[in-house]
Amino acid sequence: GGPIAFHGAHQAGIATPVQDRLHFASFDLGLDDPKKVAELMRRWTAAAERMTTGQEVGTGATGAELAPPDDTGEALDLPASRLTLTVGFGPTFFEKLKLPAPDRLKELPHFPADKLDPARSGGDICVQACADDPQVAVHAVRNLARIAFGAASVRWSQLGFGKTSSTTPEAQTPRNLMGFKDGTRNIAGSDRAALDAHVWVGQEGPEWLRGGSYLVARRIRMHIETWDRTSLKEQEDIFGRTKREGAPYGAAREHDPVPLDKLPADAHVRLAHPDSLGGVTILRRGYSFTDGSDNLGRLEAGLFFLAYQRDPEKGFIPIQRALAARDPLNEYIQHVGSGIWACPGGVRQGSFWGEALF
Ligand code: HEM
């Protein structure tokens, strides 16, 4: 497809169609002057406007012979590949800059069985780069990191290679590394009523955050080898959906409504379904990852879970509380990284990321 518009009422990369690849980066600030951070956001926005339309950053990869090029060059000749860049600010961002944090931006509570690695968690600023070509996503993060030199540096980053969610229900639902269709019952990017109700921050938020969203990221390791020794029946019971079709128990087709009482009482889909949790709903946008193998020869693989919501207390937090307590999937997964950020509303032409905040 053609480029995805960078400007608009909402940041691209949330409700827009999910691309094939992810490079997610968490940055820490090296300074505490909001004016300098505003300047960084202005420069980042200018670079993002160019990269998301397939143009080179600044004066380009071959602008001046005697200076390091403004653009690192590895995306030359590649199309924009539907690149989107989405930015968010974490609780520590507001502490460092002594700016008022939005009410709903609080560090996540500890959930049972969390085994979070601080080196893969948190961060003052997050950048979610999604594109259909991994080289384009990596190029984007690399060039933003380069621009940030002296102001912010990468704390951790995560590559993702296969989408495990969809905002386009008419398209084939992708599968996660457990082999199940993932993202069947997600918010469609065209469902404005659901997005307004569950994803976009409204009048309750500060001006800069209206039309924005809260992002929760979780690096979830999968114990793939144990999963692969589990019977098909048990695998299907765990989700309450069939593997090939993705149909909920008690129904024939993938997109049939979920007859909750036909699913095992602790099935993942039953526990996470809005009807089990008083209407709680998130927009999922996660990716599979495989970072090679660990020193025991096991795949270092899993799901880099990304969820957008209007209020984490009516989104990720109650769902994860229910799942952490009862989900039989817990035997096969472990949450090892975590972060939460407030993603500002969309960027208008001539403005920059989070301008109204500074
Ligand atoms: C549904 C897999 C973690 C929330 C599903 C489905 C699968 C799945 C296969 C059914 C298809 C669908 O409707 O998308 C996984 C795996 C996970 C994981 C493999 C971990 C590695 C999580 C987490 C949350 C979550 C951490 C939120 C805290 C949901 C929700 C649904 C869902 C809200 C839709 C329920 C419905 O409305 O029917 N998941 N999931 N999942 N999952 Fe997960």
Automatic annotation (TrEMBL):
Q: Which GO terms describe its biological process?
A: iron import into cell
Single GO cellular component annotation? cytosol
Residue ranges that the Swiss-Prot or TrEMBL entry lists as coiled coil: none
Q: Where in the cell is it found?
A: Cell envelope
- Tell me which PROSITE patterns the record gives: DYP_PEROXIDASE (PS51404), TAT (PS51318)
Key words of the record = Heme, Iron, Lyase, Metal-binding, Oxidoreductase, Peroxidase, Signal
Which family does the entry's similarity section mention?
A: Belongs to the DyP-type peroxidase family.
Q: Which PANTHER family match?
A: DEFERROCHELATASE (PTHR30521:SF4), DEFERROCHELATASE/PEROXIDASE (PTHR30521)
Specify the protein name.
Deferrochelatase
Provenance organism: Planobispora takensis
